[in-house]
Amino acid sequence: MAAKFHSTSLTGIAVPATQFSPDALRQIRRERGVTQRKLAAEIGRDFTTVSQYETGRCAPSVGTLATIAAALNVRLDDLVKVAA
Fold first, then answer.
1. DSSP secondary-structure letter at 10?
2. CA 69 to the chain's CA centroid
3. Rounded to whole angstroms, how far apart are CA atoms 20 and 63?
4. Rg for the chain (alpha carbons), in Å?
5. Over 80: is that where the pLDDT of 71 sits?
6. What is the DSSP letter of 32?
7. Is the pLDDT of residue 51 over 90?
8. In principle, which of 4, 33, 48, 51 could form an S-S bond with 19, CB 3.0–4.6 Å?
């Protein structure tokens, strides 16, 4: 089950809910030539956890997702999609 992140702006306008995108993580990691083991080491997790993120078996916390984004030098938005 993918984690959904709900947000509302300070103006009271609803912002669409987003959820972690395993496919985006896998694609970005591969494009950068980073192995699951290397990413795992950079974010302080086991490589099997990164594999589970990429297959959708589990989703990272928002904090871990931010750490992943920093390790891959991408915006947090690049790792999420608008929830259906």
1. T
2. 7
3. 12
4. 13
5. yes
6. T
7. yes
8. 4
- Chain segment 4-49, per-residue pLDDT in tens: 544 444 455 555 567 999 999 999 999 999 999 999 999 999 999 9
Return the residue matching tokens 């009271």.
12
Q: Judge if pTM exceeds 0.85.
A: no
Distance CA 64, CA 48 (A): 15
CB 49 within 8 A of CB 37: no
Contact 82, 17 (CB under 8 A): yes
E-strand spans in the chain?
4-8, 14-20, 80-82
Give, rounded to a whole angstrom, the gap between the first and last alpha carbons of the chain. Answer: 13
